[in-house]
Amino acid sequence: MEKSYRITLEEKPDSGDIQALVKGLGDFNASKTDGETPKYLLVAVRDGEGALAGGLLGASYLGWLQIQVVWLDEGARGHGYGSELMALAEQEGRRRGCLNSFVETLSFQALPFYEKCGYTIFSRLADFPPGGARYALTKKLD
User: Fold this and answer.
1) CATH no. for residue 43?
2) Is residue 10 domain-resident?
3) pLDDT tens for residues 101-129?
4) Phi and psi torsions of 106, nearest 5°
5) N or C: which end of the chain has fewer CB within 10 A?
6) In angstroms, what is the C-alpha Rg of the chain?
């Protein structure tokens, strides 16, 4: 007998269900990529007491360094920490065998910063957010 399914919209999803979806997609992708899964990296900026003041979260995957989150506390901005975060992440990406890097940003975030770091726009999605744009950028790491 064929199994029956129903579709529901869940505005407050259960964290376990979110994790199950992510794991399901990850397992499927691994089955198509010789078992490769993202290998995460964190480059942190900490204050004198060791509290997190910013950082970069990324992953190496399928020969690419994916920059997923870059954030600095207001007090840490404008001192070169962002450029140092990017340089350390890219260096680690190269060590892991990545030939390219990828990042997305919104028009009100850090587009000029990424361009200053050598990234070039390959995609612009207009009106994301309304009146702005979402950019996807890449950089060769070789």
Assistant:
1) 3.40.630.30
2) no
3) 999 999 999 999 999 999 999 999 999 99
4) -95, 160
5) N
6) 18
